[in-house]
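Assemble and predict.
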Amino acid sequence: MAVESKVNRQATCSAPVNIAVIKYWGKRDEKLILPTNSSLSATLDQADLKTTTSVALSSEFDSDRLWLNGKEESITNPRLQNVLQKIRSLASERAQTDEEKAVLDAHVHIVSVNNFPTAAGLASSASGYACMVYTLAQVYGVTDYELSKIARVGSGSACRSMYGGWVAWNMGTRDDGDDSFAEQTHLADHWPGMKILILVVSDRKKGTSSTSGMGTSVRTSELLQHRITEVVPKRMAAIKEAIEARDFAQFGEITMRDSNQFHAVCLDTYPPIFYMNDTSKAVVQMVTQYNTMKGEVKAAYTFDAGPNAVIYAMEDAMAEIASLTSHFFPSTTPDTFFRGTTTAPPAPSAELLSHFTIAQQPEDSLQYGINTQPGPGPQVLTDEECLLDSSGLPKATSA
Amino acid sequence: MAVESKVNRQATCSAPVNIAVIKYWGKRDEKLILPTNSSLSATLDQADLKTTTSVALSSEFDSDRLWLNGKEESITNPRLQNVLQKIRSLASERAQTDEEKAVLDAHVHIVSVNNFPTAAGLASSASGYACMVYTLAQVYGVTDYELSKIARVGSGSACRSMYGGWVAWNMGTRDDGDDSFAEQTHLADHWPGMKILILVVSDRKKGTSSTSGMGTSVRTSELLQHRITEVVPKRMAAIKEAIEARDFAQFGEITMRDSNQFHAVCLDTYPPIFYMNDTSKAVVQMVTQYNTMKGEVKAAYTFDAGPNAVIYAMEDAMAEIASLTSHFFPSTTPDTFFRGTTTAPPAPSAELLSHFTIAQQPEDSLQYGINTQPGPGPQVLTDEECLLDSSGLPKATSA
């Protein structure tokens, strides 16, 4: 029995995760999510980490609805409402035909899934909001707008997931946020051989949310103001030059210093915020001793608002880092420890190990590693990949 | 058989440890040990933590010699030589009688012991150098000089151990260091009921020495300059006012913020320095949640260049903190865990515990606690307490 589709319009898209090397920490406007400093990130390959979102729009739907990772969620979240409202008002400004006007009264069903466990503490709000905005824009026909400004009001760092490769988020100075947007500085293939390793730390404790943490930092850290006005502007310029010149030593040093300073500001917050733990610290020491051995910065760590480490390195150095990681952070499931694009690394040589003074960490201090690299921005997928069925409800496989 | 004493002059003194609440971190002159900011500390009661030093001077000694904690050590350490040279040149300027001039050519034997394990990572160089300078000054008859300036060239924070109670180290601005000295701001009994608890963390790993760490911070931390010029001068004034007014909430907040900022600067150093570990962090969280429960700052943590915690609190609050510590940091030897002035605390009530969300830490994460309080400065002891025998060698009991 053929079912007539209730859906008037639909689209399915995917969007990537990004990892900042110049960190975003502090808002000058909580509602518009305008930052106190610019930031810069690499967008990660979607083979390893992505969000996929389908949006259906139908005059027959009774209300807007949302399913995240197989579970229906309330759509009343203010940030989600801000995003929907902005896309619809953009569509409204442009509506000319009767069909375009009718679309404004119709409701949407949104289904979104991640190909990675949200429990791992990887920033899923960036890829999540980027994907939602990108997909809504397809459905509402507003893809020519600077969509990163809409993603930004969902989750600040989501604006950077609207582009592939290397992406800067310019803080802007306007009160209405119109000059606070992301832009690609370099394509994903600009720097051949660049690899990124995510090390997921086994720590189930819920830390301070980044929204609440950065609010407390802005109010209480005396060092944050100095970072905002004196340090970040110079670093933004310097890291763009380092990426342009493919100068890893320069890129890596700025990346590590900026991660250190972000966590320093968290510690200078009152009461202090600790995102890094003893396992994170051991990763820092492993990378530091690796660079000391090489006599040059060949690998760079960075930590977001949690204990997980992300390491940037060129392919050869990354092979050694993976090997050292498997030694210093022993796993009870070594064969499945490294996910993504490579297989399990060989054990490090005694000669290599002789350069290190750090202790082996307790078994399973790290949960697993993901080998990845810079990748492209959001993608429009085919109808075959749609997560909704013809009645506008999640397909069984998406639940 | 009576032995005629070879010793021409001798003295025995004790000197205290101090714990800074405004932290010293950074030198503007490595040799004279001139700091980049002023600092302020409480001197601790010597019942719990002290150094005792005997100095004998004799024309019959062949060379200067030094015994530390029962073991003869080389006296060629440049800082030790600086201290000896400064005391002797002071004595030389003043020498008038033949006896006074003869003393300048004689050698000294120095014996020094701590009443606490040096392995615990408590700052023994402060009490050690303070005691050596104080005792040498007795022997050389130069006790009227501002001796804190000489202690300072042995170990910066030693200058603060030259006084009891609350002590400020004024950074000074002169190149010769003549205006960089310690002075007592308040007597030890100024603030009745003030208690200090030292929590020794079980972590045998040797961290970055403070001398090398602060050198790297001065060279690499962009935030340290802001701390030096903008933050510390205001805090020095504010904490003196808080101590003067016996305003614990104000005193405690400044103390915690300054400890946080010192460790933030360490993290902003490149490569970063981590002194606090996961156990330190758990102490911070326990104190933070305690203050939240009280609706006011009733206890304050501070951490020096290592993982050990020091907690300041008034007597009643300290009783609760001790009780909470015994719960959240379980010990396999609870009866001997708390050393110093009190006995083992009672277990906390279920009602008290209901205000806390932190987890119990692994057994013996803390090694032991020392209950102490502000106390007086260096003391001249009697000949009976001398650590040297009549031949000018360490007594067997000191070895």
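DSSP finds ten helices and 17 strands in chain B.
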